[in-house]
Amino acid sequence: MKIEGALTPADVTQTGAAARTLEAQGFDGILSFEGAHDPFLPLAVAAEHTTRVELTTAIAIAFARNPMVCAYTANDLQLLSKGRFVLGLGTQIRPHIEKRFGETWSRPNRRMREFVRAIRAIWHAWDTGERLDFRGELYTHTLMTPFFSPGPNPYARPRIFLAGFGPAMIGVAGEVADGWIVHPLNSPGYVAALGLPALERGLAAAGRTRDQVEIACQTITMIGSTDEEIAAARGKAKGQIAFYGSTPAYRVLLEHHGWGDLQPELNRMSKQGQWFEMMRLVTDDMLDTIGVSGRPAEAGRALRRRNAWASRTSLVLYNETEPDAVVDLVRAFKAG
Q: I need a labelling partner for 164 at 20 to 30 A (CA). Which of 90, 124, 170, 210 fits?
C-alpha cells in the first residue's frame, strides 16, 4: 500500500522545498488540492523538484473547468513529471460551482461520467490523429486541428481518479475512472457497507473488474510526541470534522453511524459563524471512528490496519510535533 502526503506550504513560493521534503520523508505520492491556490500549478513546481513521487490533484474541481482545459493541463503535467501525474477530479457542491465559480451545476453524476469520457476522447484524438468527434449530452468536442494537438504523450496518458462520497458518484468512479478517492469524512464501516458495494456496481455496469481501479483513502491523522500534543492535534481535527459535517451532502456517513441528527445542527451553527462551538459537538467516539491518532509510529501502524482494503492512504495530517515525527509515521506504515 502506498502512502501520500499533502503539499500545503503556508507560503506558495516554498512549494519546491515542501515537495522535496515530502519525497525525503518517504512518501510515495504528493497531493495538491483546490483551496486557496490552484491545484495544478504547485504540481508543476513539484515535478521539477522531485524525481520519484507520484503527483496527484486531490482534487481539482471538474465543473469549474471543461474537459478540453483539463486534457491540456493533465497532458502537460504528465510531460513535466515524466509520467508521474494523476488527474484527480471532484465535483465540489452546488453553491461553490454556481456562486464561487459562476459555472453550471446540473446532474453531477451524469456530468462527471461524461466529463471523463470527453477527456479520454480528446487524448485518443491526440494519440491517433483521428478526428475528434465527442458528442455528449452536456459536452461537445468536435474540433482539433494539427496546430492545437500536442500529439502522443511519450509517458502514456495520465490516470484519472474520481472523488466520490455518495453511492451514485462512487459508482461513476467504478464505471469510468482509474481510481476512487475516498473523502476524509469516512469510516471503514461506511466504506464496507456503502462505498465498496457502490464501486462494484459501477464496475459491473462497465464490464470492468476490481483490479482496474485503485482506492485512495484520505484519512484524518492526528499525531504528537506527548499526550498534550496529541490532544491539540485532535482538537484541530474536530474543527475539520464539524465543518464537513455541516454540509448536507455528507449527512449519509453521519446517519450510517447514528449521528444524523447532528448534521442540521452543525449546518445551522455554521450559518451563524459558530465554528468554535461546532467543534464541541464532535465527540471523541466520532473522532476515533473517522480518524487515527497517537504517537507517530503508533499512528502509522494503525493507518495500515485501518485502510487494509485500500491501494493507498492519503494523509490529512494534524501534526503537533517535530517534522521528523512524520518520517517515523511513514516508516511504521511501510513496515506494517
A: 124
d(CA 131, CA 126): 9
Tell me how far apart the alpha carbons of residues 24 and 16 are, in angstroms, rounded to a whole number.
12
> Among positive and negative, which fits the CA dihedral 82, 27, 8, 274?
positive
Phi, psi at residue 115, to the nearest 5°? -60, -50
Q: Quick check: 161 and 180 in contact, CB under 8 A?
A: yes
Retrieve residue 173's grid coordinates: 468512479
pLDDT digits (tens, 9 = 90+) for 87-128: 999 999 899 999 999 999 999 999 999 999 999 999 999 999
Alpha carbon of 188 to those of 117, 174, 179, 185, 193: distances in Å?
30, 19, 18, 11, 9
Helices (H), 272-323: 275-279, 284-290, 296-306
Q: Which residues of 300-311 are buried (b: 16+ CB within 10 A; e: fewer)?
A: bbbbbebbeebe
CB atoms within 10 A of CB 151: 10
Quick check: 313 and 2 in contact, CB under 8 A?
A: yes
With residue 219 as reference, give the H or E element that holds it: strand 214-223
- Give pLDDT tens digits for 306-321: 999 999 999 999 987 7
Dihedral (CA of 291, 293, 297, 302) sign:
negative
Dihedral-angle region of residue 60 (phi above 0 means left; psi in -120 to 50 means alpha; beta otherwise): beta
What is the phi/psi pair of residue 294, to 5°? 145, -170
